[in-house]
Amino acid sequence: MNRQNYNGRLNQIVDELVSQGLTLEQARQEFERQFITASLRSNDWNYCRSARSLGVHRNTLRNKVSHLGISGTEGKGKASTPRVGLRRQFPKV
């Protein structure tokens, strides 16, 4: 899709959000939430790869995920569940 098509679609979305009475802050947060969620899904919920593709530090990404209330259950498909690292369980001494 070319830039002109994106601009046309974006104009339609912006007009709809303005007519619904969304503030700039609400629109920005919703855009960030969806953009970050899409990046995380496409990177199998790997924060380092997602942060790199978004051009932000991984701690910045983690803070935004927390602030925006993004969870691993958003979206569909296998990649919608965050990967949990395998941790060795050592017996307590």
What topology emerges from the helices and strands here?
Elements: H1 3-19, H2 24-42, H3 47-54, H4 58-68
What would you note in describing this structure?
The structure is a single chain. By secondary structure, the chain is mostly helical. The protein has a single domain (3-71), classed as Arc Repressor Mutant, subunit A (Orthogonal Bundle), CATH 1.10.10.60. Helices cover 59% and strands 0% of the residues. It contains 4 helices and no strands. It has helices at residues 3-19, 24-42, 47-54, 58-68. The longest helix is centred in the middle third of the chain and has 19 residues, at 24-42. It is elongated and about 65 Å long. The chain starts with a helix and ends in a 25-residue tail after the last helix. Residues 76-84 have low confidence and may be disordered.
